[in-house]
Structures are given as C-alpha cells and as structure tokens.
Amino acid sequence: MSKRKKTAEEEAGAIDLTPMLDVVFIMLIFFIVTATFIKEPGADIEKPEATTAELKAASILVAINDSDEIWIAKEKVDERQVRIVLERLYSENPKGWLVIQTDKGSSIEKIALIADAARKIGITKVSVATEKS
After folding, report:
1. CA–CA separation, 80 vs 118, rounded Å?
2. How far is 1 from 21, CA to CA, in rounded Å?
C-alpha cells in the first residue's frame, strides 16, 4: 500500500465549494430577513364564497367569527378598541392592506364598523376575504 502523491493536474481539477456555500448562506439570510410575515387574526372562520375572488397579500388581518367577535393579531378586540388597534398596526406598515375575514354567520354591521374605522385612519386598501366558488 503505497501512498501516491497527487499530481498538479489532479489538484487543479478539484472544485472548491466554499465560496458557493457562502453565497447560498448569505442569500438564505437575506430572504429570511426581508420576508413579510402575515399576522394571523386568531379566529377560525368559514369564509363566504364569491365568483370574483382573487388572491391578494395583506399585512393587517381582521377576523369576525360567527358570534360577531372581532379578532386581530390572535386577540379578541372590543369593537370600541378596533380603531386604536388598527392605527397601531397601520403605523407599523403604512403601505399594507387590510383584509377582513368574515364568517358566513357574521353580521354586515361588524364589517362596516371595521371598514369605517380603517377609512378614518387613512387605510384605503380594504377588502373582504372570500372563498372562490
């Protein structure tokens, strides 16, 4: 068993993967840092169906369950506090959308309350989430 020395040709053929792994790792860190995380409203709802539903990204999610409880950021919010909570979330992301997720059994008054509060603080991009039928 003799040990053979590598020739210069064999050493030149080896590819050093360290720089490529460094670039991949830096890209991974970049995507993690710049990713937008969606804040869940916290209530399980069954969305109404619509034929014109389209997918949009949202930064502020408000849920209204079948017993007309309002949920924002996994917390039940009193209807008198909706505007204050929306102001805080909107100040964190002023370019964001507001999406109202309603249950089939929720009342239209709660949707109007949230949309009105959003309009008063300057949120112009408001939509209601539905399931595509």
Report:
1. 13
2. 35
Domain boundaries, the chain: 49-132
- The beta strands (E) that lie in the chain are given as 49-50, 60-64, 70-72, 75-77, 98-102, 126-129, 131-132
* One CATH from 3.30.420.270, 3.90.1170.40, 3.10.560.10, 3.40.50.450 for 49-132: 3.30.420.270
Percentages (nearest 5) of helix, strand, coil residues in the chain: 35, 20, 45
Between CA 112 and CA 120 the distance in angstroms is 12
Cα–Cα dist 101/83, whole Å: 17
For every one of its 133 residues, what pLDDT tens digit does the chain have, with 9 covering 90 and above? 556 666 666 666 677 888 889 999 999 988 888 776 655 566 666 655 655 555 555 578 888 888 888 988 888 889 889 899 999 888 888 877 888 888 888 888 988 999 999 999 988 888 888 776 6
